[in-house]
């Protein structure tokens, strides 16, 4: 069985580095755990770091977190489905919201459960995923402030999640100004401007972060150390907190080109023949993972002489060239993962999970 390993020391190093940076700038932050898909073995490692706030997009995962660490503040980070409202009030201390009717239902449910539910209202800043339009914001807040059992603790925005719109200093200043407008209009204090995600960190490092932005939600940078502006690893951070270990289940020297009549494969892909490869061979290995577990484009081979060719549902094909390393059946090949690849692997019940 293929195994995904999390390296505890590397995770702790990344966490401490980020925590120091945020502390220096007076910024509150929470860890986004949706990548971990509720895997208790990995959630335990996160909670063991001393995390005070955890964000997730699945209420079932927040239920697990609450059972493991009742005092940790849990944050539900997408607009709430109606059928999930009782559980959101039960397991999420805070939620991100954009729909007035849903917030009314949250208020009613919070009253039933004798709770005060905190919300962060998300604002549309150009990426066109979730968010209240800026022109509607004052009217929206006026109605939310009338609701009992609801406490507005912040406003926020997402960037780079759908259309790839990147955060800029101007956009974050605009987000901060929305807070000032609401506070002045309603004489209410809003503690957080939650404009920080992993994609926003480079602005902080480059001293371009407006002072009004005082809350971050971090997942990808913690687990992968990735600068999403440059696609390079941040200085003093690890990009291999996770590694995927796979076993070679076949290894044969084969032609580099298929033979026969070609059609689309089951994934809808068509193979284009490179005539320069006629008559050439290479050592090809089959590994014990496939499309059920991960899209091959999110895999990064750790060994330099390994290149990914493609995958079927349960098998991954890699090329080893002349096999100078003398790999054989039963040997293990390691891969780093991109974020979306790790998400698939963590959600696969066919992949083992270990902490190193």
From TrEMBL:
Xref: Pfam families: Ala_racemase_N
Domain of life: Bacteria
Name of the protein: Predicted amino acid racemase
InterPro entries: Ala_racemase, Ala_racemase_N, PLP-binding_barrel
GO molecular function: alanine racemase activity; pyridoxal phosphate binding
Keyword terms, alphabetized: Isomerase, Pyridoxal phosphate
Gene Ontology CC: cytosol
Keyword Isomerase part of the UniProt annotation: yes
Cofactor(s) the record lists: pyridoxal 5'-phosphate
